[in-house]
Amino acid sequence: MSAPIQIHASCAARGEDGVLLVGPSGSGKSDLLLRLVDAGYALVADDRVCLHAGWASAPPPLAGLLEVRGIGIVRMAWRARVGVRAVVRLVSMHERTVRLPPPPGRDTVTGLPEFFLDPARASAVARVGLILDCVVGYRQLLDEGQM
């Protein structure tokens, strides 16, 4: 990915590590982003993300804005850019119910590890944290042959 691109996604940062939240409109990207920010993550971008050379940022007109359904668009502190480590593709629990999925594949746009997550689960924020822990090496993600 050499030329800058803009994608329909949201992005949060935990320290130096960013995670892209990807899914269709209404899938829960902004809501999960709000919960991540409430849990101590930094807002990077909501709704649109600029990607360039492994870095994510908000398009300038949207920087610091978060859409909160039922409340409106809220201006808040944001992080200018972050290195992206993983893609979390938002799906409903009914779309992907594999108890122990195969090792993560790669997102076709970014080439980053891609995970599937139901954003409506109460554990969604904790799961994003585990995903980041695994991709940066703080924890080990095992496959069935390693158990």
TrEMBL record:
<dbReference type="Pfam" id="PF07475">
    <property type="entry name" value="Hpr_kinase_C"/>
</dbReference>
<keyword id="KW-0808">Transferase</keyword>
<dbReference type="GO" id="GO:0006109">
    <property type="term" value="P:regulation of carbohydrate metabolic process"/>
</dbReference>
<dbReference type="GO" id="GO:0005524">
    <property type="term" value="F:ATP binding"/>
</dbReference>
<dbReference type="InterPro" id="IPR027417">
    <property type="entry name" value="P-loop_NTPase"/>
</dbReference>
<protein>
    <submittedName>
        <fullName>Phosphotransferase</fullName>
    </submittedName>
</protein>
<dbReference type="GO" id="GO:0000155">
    <property type="term" value="F:phosphorelay sensor kinase activity"/>
</dbReference>
<dbReference type="InterPro" id="IPR011104">
    <property type="entry name" value="Hpr_kin/Pase_C"/>
</dbReference>
